[in-house]
Amino acid sequence: MTTATTRIRVLLADDQALLRSAFRVLVDSEPDMEVVGEAADGAEAVELARALRADVVLMDIRMPGTDGLAATRMISEDPELSAVRVVMLTTFEVDEYVVQSLRAGASGFLGKGAEPDELLNAIRIAAAGEALLSPVATKGLIAKFLAQGGTSEDDEAAAARTERLSALTVREREVLVQVAGGHSNDEIAEQLVVSPLTVKTHVNRAMAKLGARDRAQLVVIAYESGLVRPRVE
Known about the structure:
alpha/beta, five-stranded parallel β-sheet
């Protein structure tokens, strides 16, 4: 959360200097955020995220050298960068990169052609520790990808995720199914006849047990573990 004296520190990671410049002008125009650095590749993004204490990294998926996917994984696996949130910049293609970016620790993804207000709102949501994209949209992407027969991890890793589900309580599983369905905490609370605070507690416990950084990753896990089956219209 930001206060009147604390601004969201944003790091821009994209190999296109012109695009970084456009993002910088937009972000710096807001009173509650500022661009603290720019990176032309993933390796530099990881270094600057640590050196500049960035809160949010706007990360292009495809960059020369160390791409955004690898950089996101390095950030999420570094205990010193546990508070850093990554927003992947993509064209919303239903491909393996997007799925892997969520599992790697990204808070979500946003199209490069998004409206300025969408981008700014995404930064604020990610900085607050929430999933950038609504679980409904994330669910749709994952469902289509998996229904097409795509796989984004080996059998051993998939089995490990399924095994971890056994650590969830019955209620935590129920909540996870609801999260994968794109429902908010308030909606889940109404459905299960509990308080929103109780739902939040179950969601946090499920994330801790499954090693998920946010709700977007919970959606991926729910589908890949088989707890929820994809359905494509």
